[in-house]
């Protein structure tokens, strides 16, 4: 006779086990964490979690894991991955009041680091509200929901794990939206959570670890908002935000934040026509970054230095920095890589090198690297695809390949329906000026007409 409890025994998730393939649970967990970083999520997946999913103990993942799994396995829904419908696990009909479910949907706390999970006091209702805000609304709503709206009186204000987590999530949300849609529509709204984050630095905290997270989170948020200003052509605002992040890093004694702030300062200085400052800032970033143990970070910082040398027309120094960047990149990823560097893969390496050769006037070589950047870029990073395509169009135009340049420019214009970036529009405007001498070519004429129409709608 069957046991009355037989129906409550977890059913192994064989579909998910097949997705793991030949990788060990530990190797698969590492792949999950990498995929999470690629889309701006943060999950603390380990071999134990993978085992719980495959055994059927976790019948449905939380929303963060769901987004990561969908990113890893495009075209598959939860059912395809062997999970039960969320409403069947978490809905009122899934179990009688007071009874334990046969399996469970993972709680939001299980996707965080153990420290945050142990101390979280949020109810599941509050977590769902916060999650919906991050998934469906803009950064202004994030500030109101995640950072608690208007701050209480200064003497009564306290900050804990939930406030630190809210700041960190605001950073990830902004980065994810920028990757997909560009900076122009986000910048003004992003100032509100930044203001709220810096107000939290004056709050009382019970633990130094929370204070450290708040400083790091506020500094990263300042850099993210600075980047939105940078990419939308507000260079003075960007410089102010980067300086604020750098000051925060120095106060907190945070070399990782300091390296990031100098990295972005170097990029801004190059774009603002201050190449010598770009070189110095990139070198300062490398001094801060050496103690972090991330070869990929040092590779990116070497590329920032190369960009400054290229604008100074110092070809030997630029080539030396590019070779150093390649050698560091080839060392591969590591756990020491900062979370914000999820964008930096082979495509970005090629794109930044293309910009260097373009600045040095080697248009054909620049076009070759830009073309590789477009081909290698993950489809998730829509903004970067548009940027590399615009770079390709610019280099081809200057190299005299007018028809190819017009075709690339047309593809970039199509992507601007999804991406709002003053920087990319400026690049395409410069390309259109170069191509006017070839207006007799029908393909070029079509691009110039489309560009003029698009410029009028901005």
Automatic annotation (TrEMBL):
Cited Gene3D superfamilies: Tetratricopeptide repeat domain
Bias class Polar residues marks the residues at: 1-12
Q: Where is this region: Disordered?
A: 1-22, 89-131
What InterPro entries does its record include? TPR-like_helical_dom_sf
Its protein name is Transcriptional regulator
| Organism of this sequence | Streptomyces cinnamoneus
